[in-house]
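Exercise: predict the fold of this chain.
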Amino acid sequence: MRYADDLRVYVASERAGQRVMASITQFIEQRLKLRVNRRKSAVARATSRPFLGFGFYRRGGIVKIGVSPKSRQRAKDRLRELTGRTWGVAMDRRIHAINRFTVGWTAYFALADGERPFSDLDEWLRRRLRQVRWKEWKRGPTRARNLRSLGVPNGKAHEWANTSKGSWRIAGSGILNTTLTKAYWTSHGLQGFLDPYRRFRDATRTAGCGPACPVVWEAPG
């Protein structure tokens, strides 16, 4: 072995942590002849040190597993690439690529407690897709025609089709929230984050091994 990383040792107190840190560092460096990265090593509370993308937090006196803020930001960064204007592909192909990412990402983080990170990412993703759709429609007449086909009255459709507001602002507006809804994107095959998360969690409960049950995910196709 030339190196080893991502090691956590959980103890009951800071004093115990300092003692264990010293003894393990000595063992790793003197017996195993490996180098400990002191810049990344620390004695700290579990809630302040993410691990393999997971974070930890307390609720009701119990330590819970969450998705670290950095992991959520990286997910958004990838989705920005998949919903970017420079990738000019059909929506079906775009959604297929998004699904491959979101389902795989959710399978990895399905151990996390709580739906909030997944529902928040879903809302943000749908707004990105509404922005993509609005840009696809491009011109005022096309936008008005598509809004009318989604049930918007003619006058309102014309008003919004010719608005000077930016695409991101429009993507968060009531007119697109009530037309390009979750059901709309589901009908186009979008899986997102929350629905796969619930499926994976239900699968672990059905298996009878509780929240610590390993999650197995097979890529579609």
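Check your answer against the key: The first helix runs from residue 14 to 31.
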